[in-house]
Amino acid sequence: MGWYPGARKMELQPESDTQPAIRPTQFILHSIVAPWTAKRTYEYWRDSTNLESHFGLGYAGDLAQFIGTHTRADATGAANRRPDGTGAVSLESASNLEASDPWTAEQVEEIIKLGAWLHEEEGIPLRICRDADDPGFGYHRMFRGWNPDGHSCPGDARVKQFRAVVFPGIVARATGKTTDPSKEDADMTPAQEALLKKLVADVAELKKNAAVAPWTYRNPSQDAASKKAGHRIPDMHGRVQHIEAAVDALTAAVAKLADRA
Q1: Distances (CA, A) of 116 to 41, 76, 110
Q2: Is the pTM of this model over 0.90?
Q3: H or E element in which residue 174 lies
């Protein structure tokens, strides 16, 4: 169950039969920091470690699957399997020994095809993960929960490539549409943007007025100048109320965006 028809099946045992089931909600990309074929990656998982990924991808686009997508693989920290039974599908890809090179065109194509299949077959949503538990697409170093050692996997070049090429390619392949990865989820509407700008302006004016005579709040009857400044207090109170209302409105707008994402 959960075997991708576009990959060569190279099943790891006993892991494939003994590790617990997951419900896949994320697809997370890794670099293995070695210029290995998919077959060599399989041999490494089989012979040299108790870790493994679901998929291995060579430079030439050779793709192999080692464990079904409904079984836990141990490549991504807390995302391997959560207490609620959800987990991440992981892919290790060939790289140079510094993990500083971009994915090859052949690798990009295979990642895009697999990502589109995972969306269609497993329902992984077409968005970049917003936190460590959020369903979607990502890369290993994105969250500390996925990457407890804090290393740079899959490397700077591939992170840029993921956002500029790979993730938009998955979206395009799955839907026939394009997306701007710098504006994933949802943008603010013009009304929300205007509200935010007004809020910023109100806060700036409040700070300016408070700086004019901050001591008048302690004793506004002290002299003529302070009396004049003291008259600003009711107006300042009104401004604070206005800002609070604006904050409430902006919070509600952001909540709506989150619900719609």
Answers
A1: 23, 21, 10
A2: no
A3: helix 167-175
